[in-house]
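Consider the tokenized backbone below.
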């Protein structure tokens, strides 16, 4: 190749190199042209993907998508925000001052209060009195131990316990019911007066003695030794006597409220709580 042609090719190459170096971006311009160093396949945020797009009219279009795990967490959070006053009674919710709902009404009925469904100052005051009477810490709110005692008291229709009732007679009747329930399942035994077996009056006499008062031996003698009261004024823990057509007494038990009694009824049937099966009854109080 001639020298002139070589020289022309060399000049042309140098010119192209200079032109390319002149057009190369520098500084901030160079940074804009750099490729992202983010590795392909980098995982996106798992919680949510947020997409914002501008609408033609200048507005903003917003799209949010969440993962199934986030949705489940939202559902769980919604469940836990249900007011305690609407939880079921078997769940024994921790009810406090200012709670509302049907479960609060149950507590108020058990405490012999007007059930308005609001856990107010009157409910707190009576609940503290109830807790004190059963030897519980007087917090004024429903905890697990208070639920257990309150449901028992509601079932047996006894409000206050032995540690602080409104009167001595209420305390005595509460003791009677506790002692009566302890003997559930004891076999019937004619003439029995011990835990080996009871007849009807042997059972009532044993229970009353444990509660602090002594009764005569037979059902007729017990009827004579009590103050006769009407069915309307009878309270759980009083005695209930069964009478035959001639007015004589042939059976006795311990009134449990709600047309129920504790008694030792007949051979083959142990001590149990049962319905009062006849209207020919009389009530007595010691």
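A designed sequence for it:
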């Amino acid at each position: 190749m001639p020298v002139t042609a070589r020289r022309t090719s060399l000049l042309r190459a140098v010119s192209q190199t200079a032109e390319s170096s002149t057009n190369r971006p520098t500084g901030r311009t160079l940074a804009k042209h750099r490729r992202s160093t983010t590795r392909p396949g980098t995982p996106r945020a798992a919680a949510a993907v947020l997409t914002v797009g501008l609408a033609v009219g200048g507005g903003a279009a917003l799209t949010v998508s969440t993962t199934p795990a986030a949705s489940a967490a939202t559902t769980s959070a919604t469940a836990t925000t249900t007011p305690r006053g609407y939880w079921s009674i078997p769940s024994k919710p921790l009810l406090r001052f200012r709670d509302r709902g049907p479960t609060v009404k149950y507590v108020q009925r058990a405490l012999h209060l007007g059930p308005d469904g609001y856990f107010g100052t009157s409910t707190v005051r009576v609940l503290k009195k109830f807790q004190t009477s059963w030897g519980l810490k007087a917090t004024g709110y429903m905890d697990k131990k208070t639920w257990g005692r309150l449901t028992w008291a509601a079932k047996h229709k006894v409000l206050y316990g032995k540690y602080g009732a409104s009167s001595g007679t209420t305390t005595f009747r509460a003791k009677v019911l506790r002692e009566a329930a302890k003997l559930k399942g004891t076999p019937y035994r004619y003439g029995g007066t011990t835990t080996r077996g009871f007849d009807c009056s042997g059972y009532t006499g044993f229970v009353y003695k444990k509660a602090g008062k002594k009764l005569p031996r037979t059902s007729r003698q017990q009827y004579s030794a009590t103050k006769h009261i009407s069915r309307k004024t009878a309270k759980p823990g009083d005695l209930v006597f069964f009478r035959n057509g001639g007015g004589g007494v042939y059976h006795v038990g311990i009134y449990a409220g709600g047309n129920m009694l504790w008694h030792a009824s007949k051979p083959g049937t142990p001590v149990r709580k049962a319905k009062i099966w006849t209207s020919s009854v009389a009530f007595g109080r010691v």
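The domain at 84-156 is CATH 1.10.101.10 (Muramoyl-pentapeptide Carboxypeptidase; domain 1).
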